Amino acid sequence: MSNNIENHMAVLQKSLNLVNLRSIVQFYGKFPDKYRLKIWQLLLQIPRNRDVFKMLSIQGHHKAFLSLDQQYPVPSGVLRRAFHRTLSLLVNWSPLLAEVTFLPYLVFPFVKLFHSDLLVCFEMVATFLCNWCEDWCLFLPYPPINILNVAENVLAYHDKDLLLHYVRHGITGEDFFENENLYQVNAVIQKAYYIQQNTPPELTPKSIISADVLPLQKGSYLRIFNPKRSLSFQERS
Questions:
Q1: Omega into 143 within 30° of 0, i.e. cis?
Q2: Buried/exposed code over 57-67 (b: 16+ C-beta within 10 A; e: otherwise)
Q3: Which of 19, 59, 103, 166 could form an S-S bond across to 92 if both were Cys, CB 3.0 to 4.6 Å?
Q4: Are 236 and 92 in contact (CB under 8 A)?
């Protein structure tokens, strides 16, 4: 089964290049539904580190999520099991994540998409964390104030009245992030493209988040949040 997946990915990779993918996104606003998840795996160079993943898996369910069902109930049994396992895998990989109260809210959208392959699901989240969330735990147990300040500045630039509305009603970025919000994904994506193209460079997150995406290493999962002083999971085992 794994060989079939790898062969399929290799064939798909040969037929794709960044120029074509960029043209598709610019024209349609998204990748084709049928290939979207595979394309993102290719773009992020998901390594499928089975051996190291298995070592994380055998550590079992983490005690940090004993009350997860009360905090974030999931009615579907399949999604619930994948959700619990993915969170435990992440904390087994990087124990600091047990202190991140918003972790379930961040992880669940990935689980909904990739629950049929927990290896890929874990590596997608880990890649996201390593590239865009390194500084999110600088202010624990408080939310990532630096990131939220950037988001507030962008909102002030594009819709000052909405920002003032949030301020008057005591709504913070953390409040919005940690509550289920009904929205149309396509509409959000289109708005994100507009904001990206019409925001002054000094207001974008590029000042604190690198634009270069670094994939996970093959054969090893690096610890996150302090990569210069960290050891890989393989080295610690």
A1: no
A2: beeeebebbee
A3: 59
A4: no
The whole-angstrom separation of Cα 59 and Cα 66 is 15
The pLDDT tens digits of the residues spanning 168-217 come to 988 877 676 566 555 566 677 778 888 888 999 888 887 777 777 888 98
CA quadruple 84, 86, 89, 90: dihedral sign: negative
Show Cβ contacts of residue 115 under 8 Å, excluding neighbours closer than 6 positions.
78, 79, 82, 83, 121
Looking at residue 227, its pLDDT comes to 38
Cα–Cα distance measured from residue 111 to residue 161, given in angstroms and rounded to the nearest whole number: 35
**Helices 103-114, 118-132: inter-axial angle, 10-degree rounding:** 140
Q: Can you list the pairs that 42-45 forms with residues at least 24 positions away whose Cβ atoms lie under 8 Å?
A: 42/9, 42/12, 42/13, 42/16, 43/213, 44/124, 44/127, 44/213, 44/215, 45/215, 45/216
